[in-house]
Structure prediction request, 241 residues.
Amino acid sequence: MKNHILFISDLHIALEKTEITQRFLRFLTKRATGCQALYILGDLFDAWIGDDDDTPPSKTIKQALKQLTDSGVAVYLLQGNRDFLLGQTFSRQTGVKLLDDYAVIDLGGQPVLLTHGDLLCSDDVAYQMFRLKSHDPAWQNSVLSKPLWLRLLAARWYRLRSYFHKRNKTPTIMDVNQQTVEDAMRRHNCQTLIHGHTHRPARHTFELDGKPAQRWVLADWKKHGADILCWNGQAFETETF
Prediction:
């Protein structure tokens, strides 16, 4: 297990999702312990309102991540569309290293591209416009300057609004655009891509510039199960925790 590298995403941890929170805590102390690295590809939390938030279960999660990184396991995190306000204070408190929107790692001598996945859903124009605004430093500073209680209320409203907006969107719009996928892989010179966001776990194979390519889509964590993608040092394999 020392050479195992694990990939997870879309846990959407929240106060009311106690089963997922407890499963993640067990995952950190059992499956992730002793591994080489853990990559969390976005939406670890259902809503993150600032690194100063220690309301349950945020503080417990941060402490558990710190224990894992202190044990020698490297943990990396990509911000998702729900926790894009995760910042450097969170990184210092947990030992987790934050990655850019696109990150390239080496697996078995081959470059592999990592991203959350929301940037690949280019057909969802309304969301892409919101994403552009919400990643503006001035917008983020304005949000983070608000009192914690107000941000907590705003997060509840955002989650409710997101739920109703999704009901009015077609499944195609909320999935990745294949041309955008290929452009991203070509731009980073990778034949393998791993992402989450769409909640449509699968392994897609296709041809990219005359060479075989693959796209792994990570699963969102459910109330009664959690799927994990593992690089065992030679190949990818999927697990259920």
